[in-house]
Amino acid sequence: MSETHNSTSVYIEKQSDLFLAELEGSVQSDISDTVFNADNDRLAVIEASAGTGKTFALVELVLELLLEQEIPLKSILLVTFTEKATAELRLRLRTKLRDLLAACEQNDAPFTTVTGVPSWEINTARKKQLKAALLDFDSAPVYTIHGFCKRILREFAFENRQLFEQQLCDTELLFPEVFRGYIRRKLLSQNTPVAELFALYVKYAEGNLVSLEKDIVFLLSKVGEFRPNLPAFDVFQTEFSRCWQLLVSLDLSLRKQNLLQHPLRSAFEITALNETSSRKTMSNLDLLLESLAAAHAGASIVEILPNFLAMEIGVVTTPRCRKNLKSGEQWLSTKDFPPEELAWIDAVSECEKLLQNYNLSGGSNKILKAWVTQQVLEDVRRELAQAKLEQGAFDFDDLLRIVEEQVIPQNVENSIPTALTKAVRKKYVCAIVDEFQDTDRRQWNIFQQLFLESPEHRLIVIGDPKQAIYSFRGADIFTYLQARKTFQQKTSRIAFALKKNFRSSEEMLRGLNQIFSGGTWFPEKRGILYQQVGCGKPELKLKDDTPNRNAIHLLEMQAQFTISGKKIAEQKKVKNPKISLTLLAELAALSGNKYYGNESFLQAVQAELGKEISAENQSALLNLFLDEQAENATIRFAEEIALEIKALLRIGSTENQRPLCHDDQGERALKEQDICVLFRKSNEGEILGKALRRHGIDFSFYKQKGLFDGREALEILDLLEAVAHPVDHSRTAKLWLTRFFGANINELAQASTWDADFIHQLQEWNSLAEARRFRRLFDQILQRTKLIERELLLGGDERSVTNYVHLFEVLNRKAIERHLDLFELIQLLRRFIEGKEDPGENENLLRLESERDAVQLMTMHAAKGLEFPVVFLFGGLTGSLKNTIQFYHDAAEKPVIDLLNSKIPVEHEWQVEAEQQRLLYVAMTRACGRLYLPCIGYLQGNSGKRICKVGSGYSMLNEQLSMISEQIFAEKHNSTFSSSLVGTSAVNLEVIINATEQEKLREWKPTELPEVPESLTETENPNRLFSQLRFKKRGFVLSSFSRMNRKNEEQNAAQKWTNSKEIAPVEIRTAAELGLRRENDEGETAQFAEIQSLDSTSESQFTVNKIRKDPLPGGAQTGNLLHELLERIDFSAIRESKSAEDWFALPAVSRMISSINERYGRSSETESRIVEIIWNTLRTPLRLGKTTDAPVLELADVKKDLREADFYFPIPNKAGKAEVIKETKDRYIPGRYSASSVEGWTIEKGFLRGSIDFLFEYEAKIYLLDWKSNLLKNYAPESLEHEVMEKYELQLQIYTLATSYWFNLDSEEKYNEKFGGVLYLFLRGIGEKSASSGDSANSVNEGVYFKRPSWTELKAYEARLSLEKY
Description:
alpha/beta
């Protein structure tokens, strides 16, 4: 900004590269080195590479037109391609206008004059322009392309001859009805060639109408020439009939010569057929002879055709033959056949030529489907258009089509503008189109006719062809290139370019310029150039002291080798094996072993052989045993990325200082959300998510699928089906396999899993559904299955949890709005899932999960427009999914649609590869400070062979990275690139179930399940039955073990306990009682806390009167007070405080503690002691184990936790003897002591319900924690062990079991991987130093009892629970 020359003008600098002349020493441009001049540049193309401030330049461009050209804001049309981009553009433009106006209003603003810098002079008149633009900003024309078309169709209804009120519709919802109507009227009721072809498809090719319908819907909006362009069916029938009848005639005369065997089969049997292909030749010959036999029997051409299309006729007419005859053979090829047999072959060749002329290849199913699609597509389009016209509806494609039709002149030669063109040109003086690389032919035609062809109007398009990645949505890069050429022809100048990058650091840009320059990535002949960019923000840096980590870091994967007995056996069959069989036989002992890296593998082989291996044998062995499976490499890469992120975030490290992000705002520590991992396919993200979860790293998986497209909607459908049919075993089995219950398929075979209680529960839910109390039903399902808690704590999948809750909300609202019963709601959900009904505006969008610190996982497409300080590229080791329909442009750049070929012609494959490379460009340019790239090198001694397969796009990247890797090795000091070897060890994997297996589970129906008890009949009230289950002494309903202790003591005080006396279960029935579920750790001893006259001889070692004086008295109320505080406290507030005093000084904290303290009847003098206890509990380092190398954690640092976690599970019911369970080596397992340890409790077999104080996750392990407020003599480890074993042993066992059941830790592998252990925290002793502790290191766990039961002990607990006579 500059100082005013007078009192009425202010000078504002133009800051965009668009208006700045290129400075000396800057990176030279390959596109344009001139500045934009609004006086001359009426038409312009602006190409903005990633990070060069495109939106900023666009805003300044609008200001240039507004101020310099005096075009009103309402006359400048701004068009972009997404609603999100539209909202951002409006916000940025409004903010800029406000800032300019505010700067002009400040008379004392420190404006300075910079000579030679382009500026806007803001005088009084221009201030009025700015004010007017700001006041009328809501009417500023900023639209998406579809929004613009919709607006002008409504605003200029007379000019475009359309209805005033047309409804926007979804074609996919309207299409099924139209398509089926067309089939009934035109294909089933009429005798036409198309109808005959359709019948052939349905009958002989197992016609799938759903698949056919899907393809036609997909092609409705596509433009292109069909290749092959299949003929009308009747035309083909005529031509084929001529060839076929000749063949039938010749075949009949041959058959008469030999009735035992067809002469052609005899001839082929004595022909020198190639051994490898003879079977295929003979099988196809037999199929052809069978078809001819059918023709002789009267089969029609239509009946013969499907089988003929399925044959490989070429292997019959020109079979592969040897050059020499063997004994008994007579013919070297079919050309040597006798005249009659040769005439038969020639007739078959004529039929083959006919198929070749029409390019009919690929199998009968595919051919018939493509044929039907081509024949009916135009008719269906017309039917659909008529249906929409009758309903007054249109879709997004119609918007563009209608506008295009109304702006293109009827007579192209005289080019008289249409009525709609005139109306639009009158309203808008200028159009600016953003993201123009994503345009298509129709959109370009619209803007070309409206603005480019007008000599008075302006058209400016801005985009980046290097970021054209949306061809699957209809974007056409060829249209962009043709449009750019048209601009150049009209203006005689090339595109403008933005030359500075404001996103990435200088070192990063140096590396990216090296990778993308040189013409390899973006060849000039294809019309897309890479312009090297300079750094617009030199202050951008990622400061990290980690050695060997530069701006671009290569993760070089080590090769994996698997010594396979199968490969050794295969070598024995090879005629000339490259490795001696003797040597391979010696390696058989290593069969099944895996090795990572060349050296590790060769050392193991050499050690086994006991001798040196020649270089030739080394190369051959590496090649033979190389494990090239991309899936293995992908998993290993995921593991290495997780480890690198863990190191970046200093997780589990003694070094607390994270890398620093430095920019123009200052420095800050790297956060989780600053790291993003990009991949191509969602399944790659799922693999990565599992690796991050294993290492305890929080992540957020960004998915763009619709709400009803995911697994969650299908599982809720299974749930509702089971609720609607609670005694249908197949439906209830499906429900068990969902995440609501988390069972695995093996558990379905166990009778103990399948009991009446589960059916009772379903029937209770059925009663709620029958009463249409869906809100209560859904709430109860979430509460009793604990789905949310399990998903969040165990899996960390917030996206999935959000989807479940959102789906329940949508279904509840739909049920209320439409008065639906359960069966109607199921049908509605099924229609939503199948896409047959629209759930309503925004209902099919996924809600974002809550904002929190988390590593971001997303696809490369989703990342466009975003930026992150640290970016990892992941995946790309597998190819893209094969499309059934191929799209490409031919040599004349015309679009082609190929329905038959599974691959694009070789000469056009570069088009697919180019888009993959552009996608990688988008991904790599998201990074600000550091970029991690996967590098797949070549196998040692095997030139040209990579250590694993690499998908398209990544292949070129790896070629360049391999050269860069050599460069890094050669240079000692490289400030841009660095590299490290990864994948040097195996990955401890969880069980992975792929999509196919999941689908099998979903469709699986159990053959036999336990019968439903007779008492459970459909005539009885299921709600009453379940009530009986709960209240008829079915189980001891456990709110806490302290409450259980109190009940025990009450019984003993009243009378001596006998086995015949039953204790009534403790049941919580009301919400009020739920608030009183707090355990009384100190039991009734609190009554005697102030009494000093107890008989000392009857006291135990830790009785109350020997406890040191504590200002906070004992008793149940104190325990409740401390528990409530620990449940309600915000850990982040205590984490950010420097001392207990600072924390208590926070208004919210002091108010909460004072309020709770007063409510529990404590005096204000106790507040300081309460604060001390809470602070020590949450800020004292706790060792999560008994060894000195166990992880140490402050509870305040816990990020994933559940407080007051309720559990409810059946007491195990297993047969067996009530014996002490022994572990290996005869070591006794604590788990069954004398009956006195549980004396006083009577619990029938049934259910246990309880509440665990605190569950938390640290480093991917679940820990169980229980607060204890007991007053003890001392809190040394041996004292606490005695206290826990005496009073809380059974509690520890049941809590551990409950946790293992809750999180489905149903195998030793899962348990060892996920469960960290149990902690009992004696609150008064945390932070205390006892004389007995001695070593200060041991005092880390003063006041803490830790135990991690082994898997054997867990099973012992389960056995005890099933065998105990409570």
